[in-house]
Amino acid sequence: MKPNPGGNEQLTALAGVLLVVFLAVEGATLLNLRSLLTVHAFVGMFLLPIVALKMASTGWRMTRYYLGSEEYVRRGPPALPSRVVVAPVVVASTIVLFGTGVYLLAVHETHGTAVGLHKAGFVVWLASTSIHVLTRLARMSGALRARYPGLGLRLGLVAATLVAGTAVAVATLPGADHLQDQVSAQVGFDQS
C-alpha cells in the first residue's frame, strides 16, 4: 500500500472536527456540572475512541516522518514549537484528563485527589489544546476539502469510531448515573 500522508492528514482533520463538536458539548456541561454529571461522564466516555483515533493518526504521521518515509518527509514536520512544546503537553494532558475521568467513573469518586488531578488536567489541556486547534485550523480546513484516495475507508473508520464511542458511553452509563446520584445526595437531593 502506497503511503498517503494527505489521507492521514484528512483522517486527523475528521477526528479533530468530531472532537471540537463533542468537546463543545462536554464543555457546556461544565456550566452546571452538579446536575449534568451524567451527561458529562457519558460524553467523556463517548469521546474516548475519537481521542484514540486522533492520537493514532497523529502518532502515525509522526512515526512515518521520523522513520524517514519519503512522502511524509516531503510534507515536512510541524513547526518546532508545536512539535516540542505544544504537542507533548496536549498528549500528556489528554492522557491525564481522560485517564482520571475513566478512573473517577470506575471507582465512583466525586471528590479527592483524583478529582483535583482531573480538574488540573483540564486546565492544562484546555490551554494547550486551544493553542493546538488555533494553529491547525487553516490546514484542517484544507485537508477536509482535499480529495485523496481512500476517503470511503477513512469515513468508515470515523463511523466505526462513533459506533464504538456510543457503545462505550452506553456501557458506562450506569456508572455515570451512580456518580450523579452521589453528587445529588451530597447536596440533599435524591436521598433514598
Entry keywords:
mainly alpha; 7 helices; 192 residues
Compile the SSE list and pairings.
Blueprint: H1 5-29, H2 33-66, H3 70-75, H4 80-107, H5 113-145, H6 151-171, H7 173-186
Helix pairs in contact: 1-2, 1-5, 1-6, 2-4, 2-6, 2-7, 4-5
How would you characterize this protein structure?
The chain has 192 residues and is mainly alpha-helical. It has one domain. Helices cover 84% and strands 0% of the residues. The protein is built from seven helices and no strands. α1 runs antiparallel to α2, α1 (5-29) runs parallel beside α6 and α2 (33-66) crosses α4. The mean pLDDT is 91.
Largest sheet geometry: none
The overall average pLDDT, rounded, is: 91
Beta-strand content: under 5%
Distance between the termini: 60 Å
Number of domains: 1
Using only C-alpha atoms, the radius of gyration works out to 18 Å
Helix fraction bin: over 70%
Shape: elongated
Strand/helix succession: HHHHHHH
The number of strands is 0
Please, how many helices? Answer: 7
Structural class: mainly alpha
> Residue ranges: pLDDT <50 for 5 or more in a row?
none
Structure in a nutshell:
With 192 residues, the chain is mainly α. 84% of the residues lie in helices and 0% in strands.
